[in-house]
Amino acid sequence: MSENDVGLKPKVKSKPKLDRPKLYKVILVNDDFTPREFVTVVLKAVFRMSEETGYRVMLTAHKMGSAVVVVCARDIAETKAKEATDFGKEAGFPLMFRTEPEE
Ligand code: TYC
Q1: Which of 55, 35, 33 has the alpha carbon at shortest distance from 44?
Q2: pTM here?
Q3: For residue 11, is pLDDT > 90?
């Protein structure tokens, strides 16, 4: 590069492309033992759902085998899934919430 070239370089700085952190699904899994009303109560308490939404999500898991509860950052998904699963465990039910990365 000669002296004459000084200042002719494009001023655009290339930004390093940061990958967006992966999102995780919290999934409610159906079982034959946990009462429907209890599942709805847990969805309302842990995931701040309304009665209507909680009931609808519970019924989807009941009929389909599982239902997506929420999609969020990994640490939040794992914390909420554990909190909700522990609610069932403490009450003696096999209620299960699991997490999986969103494609
Ligand atoms: N299948 C349960 C019942 O008939 C209710 C239920 C729904 C349990 C959803 C778990 O994720 C669940 N009592």
Answers
A1: 55
A2: 0.84
A3: no
